[in-house]
């Protein structure tokens, strides 16, 4: 889509927070039980490692000339990268550089010389301003003395300080992948940097700017800003996400498939953005759920230095501390690092269970020159979650209108996980038009479950039955992607062709208690009467293996105002289980095509349509023998995309119909087996808006209408609101006296919904109101976040009347940041 950018101001210092001007739209494309006791020593080691990295980074910044390795590319991006890396003040009219390509910059140059090299052959000149900055103008035949005067006037028109975009830290601005709340592209869908405005599909991207402005504490908080997504806190400690009516199983991390709970508990300080690709997305993940894929994009090393310390304290004794540091290690800035460590500890939750514990440790190294971009890293996540607060239904109908205010069992009942992940990513240029991309990860996760869950609704006398969980699951997974990406032009048609191979494999081993307990409690609201769920007697009960290989071909091509994205993927699946007796391997194959078309009606408005097909191998057993059939999904979607106000405001609307065959539901009479439930159709409408409609006002909003239809017979318990909406808006005070202060407010609405597949239990409609007050000045930041300001009873979606999760009461969190 045609871009119009005027008056760009680029300025970087180590201790300054960015406030970009109302006309700017620059994309900064510098892209268990036994483990908790080790966190204190881990933090000490982390701080020591960080000091070494920061010292190396400081040394690297002292050089005069710098070594540059910048290939020819869009001129505006090259100028941004040079100015940012060299910490120089550069102002220019964006219209001058639009659609121009830079010359390669290779060798040792000062910042000015590097910019002049990039400008070669463009008809533009670099001149100094009267204030000591730099600007760019057309090369004209006039006396040299006149240039500084003209340049000074051009720079003055930009202004020295702008406070219109969100008041966020330098790190959040760098990692957001766009300007303010507007993200420009998805790193996952299409496996290339196709602008969202040219993508013929609904893709939600919540970037670091939104995450920081809301003081989001979890992935669940972040996903409130995506249309069509519903969160269900699970009875086993890990939230479940539903997209357009269908469960989004197993998130992806930087585009790679995952198993286990680690992605769900990634601290937000480590997240660059969260992407939601709506509908079957086989090109992203061959084993594609019909609703879509949620992908977490992690922060990556940066060439220019940044170091941030973050501390927070809130309700229930929630204490947080984190460090995010990045920069160059070598003088030529080819070798870079990023190091993130964070810890969180909560006293108790509302039900009186011992609170959350979370520790995250992630060092990353990157080598980046003109042809090679290699990143390697390691992550350790140790997490302990209490039983989520919940309420229950009565056998006669209706629900108890409050959460149970005491532990059911012992306060130490919990769900835990420890994950170690080693990963790499390589982009190797093989010529001007061809790039080889390879990335992979090896992950080991151990998950523990120790808790009681209600097995029956409440009687009239508040009597109910409970059974216990006591198990350990171990996951070992490998995930690899390898593909060639070619960019070329034939007859005016620009093509980006991708051909590749994916491989995913995991083994799961589970041990469970040999002494399961089933206990009736006379009065759930009386004195605690349940023993510890930890039986101490565990034995192997289950093992499974899963292997998937995929071959795919994709072409993204553009001709004038017309854009298309077509792909086909062939997957081969091998699944097997062991349940006392080993099962033979189950081989399945599938082709998954997709096609999307988009046409730019004007420079600001586009219309698109797409068709996608998904496949999930049958792996569920029915009682009496046999594996249930594979699950096949199809989606048709049409929509409009608007990029308004010089690309400062983005709006997407979409209407969809997703059909799904061969859904499976748990067999109520035979534990561990499933019943076929036919199919389902989900249809609806979604709208999203994000950006800056007025100076100082930044917002992100969504609306969702979803109608989930099932045929007669065995039905899937869905429990979804038909209507939901959200709006988060911030305002930065524009007066000089209040410069740096801002406020934010959010409304999150869900219509009433039935629990389970019947009509005996209904969750009422609800609105949550959030409030934020923040201050950003130089290297400091404060954020006071109040969630559920009016202390309303909030209910999450649920598919069973025996556990209806409830949202928190009013919570307050004060967060402070210091960057240096």
TrEMBL record:
SUPFAM superfamilies per UniProt: Porins
InterPro entries: Beta-barrel_TonB, Beta-barrel_TonB_sf, Plug_dom, Plug_dom_sf, Secretin/TonB_short_N, TonB-dep_rcpt-like, TonB_rcpt_CS, TonB_sidphr_rcpt
Gene Ontology terms: biological process: siderophore transport
UniProt keyword terms in alphabetical order: Cell outer membrane, Ion transport, Iron, Iron transport, Membrane, Receptor, Signal, TonB box, Transmembrane, Transmembrane beta strand, Transport
One GO CC annotation: cell outer membrane
Bilayer topology: Multi-pass membrane protein
GO terms of molecular function: siderophore uptake transmembrane transporter activity; signaling receptor activity
Domain Secretin/TonB short N-terminal: 88-139
Highest taxon, organism lineage: Bacteria
Motif TonB C-terminal box: where in chain: 803-820
Main localization, broad class: membrane
Compartments (UniProt record): Cell outer membrane
Family to which the UniProt record says this protein belongs: Belongs to the TonB-dependent receptor family.
Protein name: TonB-dependent siderophore receptor
């Amino acid at each position: 889509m045609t871009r119009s950018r005027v008056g760009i101001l680029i300025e970087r210092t180590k201790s300054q927070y960015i406030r970009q001007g109302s006309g700017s739209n620059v994309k900064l494309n510098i892209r268990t039980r036994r483990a908790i006791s080790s966190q204190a020593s881990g933090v000490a080691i982390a701080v020591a490692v960080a000091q070494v990295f920061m010292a190396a980074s400081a040394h690297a910044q002292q050089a005069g000339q710098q070594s540059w390795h910048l290939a020819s590319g869009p001129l505006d991006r090259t100028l941004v990268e040079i100015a940012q890396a060299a910490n120089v003040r550069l102002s220019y009219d964006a219209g001058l550089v639009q659609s121009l390509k830079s010359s390669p910059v290779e060798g040792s140059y000062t910042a000015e010389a590097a910019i002049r090299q990039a400008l070669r052959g463009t008809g533009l000149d670099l001149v100094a301003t009267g204030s000591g900055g730099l600007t760019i103008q057309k090369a004209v035949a006039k006396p040299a003395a006149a240039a500084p005067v003209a340049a000074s006037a051009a720079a003055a028109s930009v202004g020295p300080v702008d406070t219109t975009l969100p008041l966020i830290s330098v790190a959040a601005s760098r990692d957001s992948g766009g300007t303010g709340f507007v993200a420009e592209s998805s790193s996952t869908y299409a496996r290339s940097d196709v602008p969202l405005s040219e993508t013929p599909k609904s893709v939600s991207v919540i970037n670091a700017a939104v995450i920081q402005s809301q003081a989001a504490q979890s992935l669940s908080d972040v996903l409130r800003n995506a249309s069509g997504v519903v969160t269900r806190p699970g009875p086993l400690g890990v939230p479940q996400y539903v997209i357009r009516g269908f469960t989004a199983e197993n998130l992806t991390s930087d585009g790679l498939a995952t198993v286990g709970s680690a992605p769900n508990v990634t601290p937000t300080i480590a997240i660059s953005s969260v992407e939601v690709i709506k509908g079957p997305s086989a090109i992203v993940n061959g084993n594609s759920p019909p609703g879509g894929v949620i992908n977490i994009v992690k922060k990556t090393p940066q060439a220019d230095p940044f170091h941030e310390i973050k501390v927070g304290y809130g309700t229930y004794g929630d204490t947080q501390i984190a460090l995010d540091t990045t920069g160059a290690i070598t003088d030529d800035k080819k070798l870079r690092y990023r190091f993130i460590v964070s810890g969180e500890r909560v006293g108790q939750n509302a039900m009186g269970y011992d609170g959350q514990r979370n520790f995250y440790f992630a060092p990353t190294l990157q080598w980046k020159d003109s042809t090679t971009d290699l990143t390697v890293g390691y992550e350790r996540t140790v997490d302990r979650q209490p039983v989520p607060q919940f309420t229950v239904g009565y056998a006669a109908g209706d629900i108890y209108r409050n959460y149970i205010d005491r532990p059911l069992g012992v306060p130490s009942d919990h769900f835990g996980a420890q994950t170690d992940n080693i990963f790499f990513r390589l982009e190797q240029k093989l010529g001007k038009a061809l790039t080889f991309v390879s990335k992979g990860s090896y992950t080991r996760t151990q998950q523990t479950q120790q808790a009681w869950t209600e097995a029956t609704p409440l009687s009239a006398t508040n009597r109910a039955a409970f059974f216990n969980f006591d198990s350990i699951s171990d996951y070992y997974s490998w995930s690899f992607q390898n593909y060639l990406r070619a960019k070329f032009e034939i007859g005016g048609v620009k093509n980006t062709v991708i051909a590749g191979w994916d491989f995913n494999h995991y083994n799961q081993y589970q041990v469970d208690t040999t002494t399961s307990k089933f206990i009736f409690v006379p009065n759930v609201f009386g004195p605690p009467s349940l023993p510890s769920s930890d039986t101490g007697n565990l034995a192997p009960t289950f093992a499974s293996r899963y292997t998937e290989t995929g071959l795919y071909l994709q072409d993204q091509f553009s001709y004038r105002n017309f854009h298309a994205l077509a792909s086909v993927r062939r997957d081969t699946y091998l699944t097997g289980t062991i349940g006392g007796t080993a099962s033979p391997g189950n081989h399945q194959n599938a082709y998954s095509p997709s096609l999307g078309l988009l046409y730019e009606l004007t420079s600001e408005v586009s219309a698109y349509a797409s068709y996608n097909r998904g496949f999930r191998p049958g792996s569920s057993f029915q009682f009496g023998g046999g594996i249930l059939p594979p699950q096949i999904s199809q989606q048709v979607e049409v929509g409009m995309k608007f990029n308004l106000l010089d690309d400062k405001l983005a709006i997407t609307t979409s209407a969809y119909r997703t059909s799904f065959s061969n859904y499976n539901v748990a067999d109520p009479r035979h534990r561990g087996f499933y019943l076929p439930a036919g199919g389902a159709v989900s249809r609806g409408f979604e709208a999203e808006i994000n950006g800056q409609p007025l100076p100082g006002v930044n917002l992100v909003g969504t609306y969702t209408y979803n109608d989930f239809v099932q045929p007669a017979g065995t039905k899937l318990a869905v429990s979804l609101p038909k209507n939901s909406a959200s709006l988060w808006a911030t305002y930065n005070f524009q007066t000089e006296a209040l410069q740096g202060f801002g406020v934010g407010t959010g409304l999150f609405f869900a219509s009433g919904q039935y629990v389970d597949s019947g009509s005996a239990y209904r969750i009422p409609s609800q609105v949550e109101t959030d409030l934020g007050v923040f201050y950003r000045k130089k290297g400091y930041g404060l954020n006071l976040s109040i969630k559920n300001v009016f202390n309303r009873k909030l209910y999450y979606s649920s598919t069973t009347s025996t556990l209806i999760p409830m949202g928190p009461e009013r919570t307050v969190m004060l967060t402070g940041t210091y960057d240096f």
